[in-house]
């Protein structure tokens, strides 16, 4: 009974993966017509600011992809290299845990700290010091990489994108990571336009 249930879950996961690839392929092939449709919808919905907001939405999604997912993969790769170099047990499992923590915007040091403790009790002093410095620098590297990669080329402040991404991920997972940033950024755009119009009327 358990084997059949496991097979059903595995088949469902494979099916969802194949469907996701098909949908992604359709979007890639028909990217230009879809982009025109999206811009038209934005223009019909938001008037003269529609095309501007459509472009801003695309830039925000790209920014979140590079600034959150990209930095998470870079950070995980650096930490993973340290674990495999020093032959940490279950390095593959820790790599997955660190990747999830980084995507969820949680400190990677939460997973690195036990590893540093393990190296303290099992490795020699030189290996321990090298691994500790390597792990701490890699764990804190997102503080440098995110400001460099996130929010480039868009007029929305980076804290707005980060707060939207965190709130969206808490509410809807990976999809919310992008959706939350877009929704909060659009509200920020509406607010700035409204404040600008009010200032013009007061003058």
TrEMBL record:
Keywords: Membrane, Transmembrane, Transmembrane helix. The chain crosses the membrane at residues 12-30, 60-86, 93-121, 127-145, 166-195. The keyword rRNA processing does not apply. GO terms for cellular component: membrane. It is found in: Membrane. InterPro entries: AI-2E-like (IPR002549). Its main location: membrane. It is a multi-pass membrane protein. Belongs to the autoinducer-2 exporter (AI-2E) (TC 2.A.86) family. This is AI-2E family transporter. The lineage of its organism: Bacteria, Pseudomonadati, Pseudomonadota, Gammaproteobacteria, Vibrionales.
């Amino acid at each position: 009974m358990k084997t059949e249930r496991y097979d059903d879950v595995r088949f469902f996961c494979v099916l969802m993966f194949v469907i996701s690839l098909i949908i992604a392929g359709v979007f890639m092939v028909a990217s230009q017509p879809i982009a025109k449709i999206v811009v038209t919808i934005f223009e019909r919905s938001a008037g003269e600011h529609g095309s501007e907001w459509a472009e801003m939405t695309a830039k925000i999604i790209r920014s979140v992809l590079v600034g959150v997912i990209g930095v998470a993969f870079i950070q995980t790769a650096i930490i993973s290299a340290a674990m495999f170099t020093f032959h940490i047990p279950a390095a593959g499992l820790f790599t997955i845990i660190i990747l999830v923590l980084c995507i969820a915007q949680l400190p990677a040091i939460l997973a690195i700290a036990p590893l540093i403790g393990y190296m303290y009790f099992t490795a020699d002093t030189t290996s321990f010091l090298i691994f500790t410095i390597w792990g701490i620098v890699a764990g804190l590297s997102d503080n440098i990489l995110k400001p460099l990669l996130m929010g480039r080329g868009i007029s929305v402040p980076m804290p707005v994108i980060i707060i939207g991404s965190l709130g969206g991920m808490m509410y809807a997972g990976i999809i919310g990571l992008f959706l939350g940033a877009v929704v909060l950024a659009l509200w920020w755009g509406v607010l700035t336009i409204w404040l600008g119009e009010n200032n013009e009327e007061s003058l």
